[in-house]
Amino acid sequence: MRLIVTGATGFVGTEVIRLALRNKAITSVIALARKPVEVPANAGPDADTSKLKSVILEDWTKPYPESVKEQLKDADGCIWTLAVTPFKSKDMDFAAVTKICFDYTVHGLESLAAIAESPFRFVYTSGVTIERDQTKTLTFLADYRLMRGRVENAILEFAEKHSPAIQVTVAKPGGIEGPGHPKSDAATSIFAQFGPTPWVHVSELAAAMIQQCLDGITKEPLWGKDLQEIGSKALRQEDYVPLTG
């Protein structure tokens, strides 16, 4: 399987790369980014680092260059972790946040779908607080949460129009714990407003998304408990990244 990963230098994207390099069912891991992506330092001895290919894309809203498309073509799946986090969005112009979160993603799916294998499985990393219903009145981060909801709606509509060749699911975890990202009472209380929302280990999140690309989309969306269940079944104990160094 040829797997594309975006946001490959971020917290979740790095873990997706690490586990994909350790997964024998994946033959090629293509990190699509603005700058070169290196093998994660904690990849471990079981990782086949020769599978990683770093592909540079400078403009994410224009037609992808032929040189880039050549390296992406015939991919079987994509895990899209590229976005601006809610915390970082507070210090950015909202138009720039929207461009990265909405324009990059929708244009990316359309571009990849045109050159990918069929079926092409696209897993989008979102969050439990993101709202698809654009008529709702939200009490915090309303513009951000509704905008990210429009991303989800757009990619799901695209998949519906191009089914079964294009298959999409959205991962919607609450808290994600991992190295440098401990559980916190404040975050737990926020996520509790959205129902029973367990914290998900970053390795379980990454493994669950990889399995959806490998074995087929089983559910949409994938909530925290789904990601926890799928990921824990896919992982060996030695595949988990330690919570502390």
UniProtKB/TrEMBL annotation:
InterPro entries: Epimerase_deHydtase, NAD(P)-bd_dom_sf. GO terms for cellular component: membrane. It comes from Massariosphaeria phaeospora. It comes from the Eukaryota. SUPFAM superfamilies: NAD(P)-binding Rossmann-fold domains. This is NAD-dependent epimerase/dehydratase domain-containing protein. It is found in: Membrane. Its main location: membrane. Residues 4-189 form the NAD-dependent epimerase/dehydratase domain.
